[in-house]
# Entry
Amino acid sequence: MEGLVGVMIGATRTLMREDEDRRAIELRLVRQAQNGDLVAFERLYRENERKVFGLCYRLAGNPELAEELTQEVFVRAWRKLGSFRGDSAFSSWLYPLTVNVALSERRSRRRRDARIVATEDPASLERAPRPPAPEAGFDLEKAMAALPPGARAVFVLHDVEGRTHEEIAGLLGLASGTSKAQLHRARRLLREALAS
Amino acid sequence: MTCEELDSRLDDWLDGALAGEAARELEAHLASCAACRERKRQLRRLLAHAAALPRSLAPPRDLWPGISERISRPSWSGFQLAMLAAAATVVLAFGALVLTRLAPAGVRTVTMPAASPSGTLVAAGGTVSDPALAQAEREYEQAAQALLEALQRRRALLPAEDLAKVESNLQVIDRALAEVREALAKDPANPELNRMLVATHRKKVDVLRRVVRLSTEL
# Structure
């Protein structure tokens, strides 16, 4: 038993060391990028592109738009890099920036992009439910994309990304009660789509 | 507990945010209501489905070249733009100060040159194409020149100290114009610089117009 505990402690220490090493490498890349090193910034991009694209894709509900948003996130990250002090992981610093870019860009595009306007009507999903689909073929990504934007953002952040209502309230500038109400609405709409 | 009450609390219960008596009431209702049990089953399935989605998704194409191109593009830094805006603000503030100090009641107006460019500069979407920008520059320069000539004729009427400040600030604007033009030569499609050039011209004409108007009132 003591041997097993020793192995577990050793493994934990190894993981912690690896994590520290990773953070140290990341911080060095950030410092280099802050001094204008584009190669270092590309490495930071490569490390984070999938997380950022995944979040943009789900918040925007549109793959083409998600590509543009991902690029915008990293362009803004480059410009704001001077404000990164290294207190947190680079990905943590990037997270609110990604949410902000995805939602603010979506709002500004909404005014001029009819394809997004089509999903902006909060009642659209209720009025025109998707055609029945067998449960095995239920496409959650597609159903999330059809949600009203506010409900979609909260569902993605809470149920896919695992954020708390307090964190979501901070990210979206909402009261946590509003976040809960949006989540309830999103779950109800998705549950109905799942059952249809 | 009614089915409606359960519906409003089911999220909290599933998220582990409902405890004590409220949780026991909800569970008792579930035990006695097949419809609500089905609702709970569907919701659990949905949440499991959502939690199983991968958080990371690979973009369908390499997005780095577009990012690299944008961040490598020569452009004015925020500091430079802020300095330019500050210079223009100084001039406008000075113009307002002069008017406040010296303008008597019953202000007369100075007619702008007929080729006033307002309303003809900015294309739809807020960007200015090159020919339109060149035309706008010509029109603004004509307007500024006409006002400068008017000012020249009246310069004896203005206090020397104020005139020196006006001329100094006009030099700041002219330097800013030259710098924006230089930046535009390197990055002609930059909408920020296009807007900045037009705005700086407009401010120059506005300042001149104010000073000329003031001189006619002295």
Q: What stands out?
A: Helices of chain B lie at 3-14, 20-32, 34-52, 64-72, 78-102, 130-154, 160-186, 191-217. Residues 113 and 143 of chain B are 6 Å apart (CA to CA).
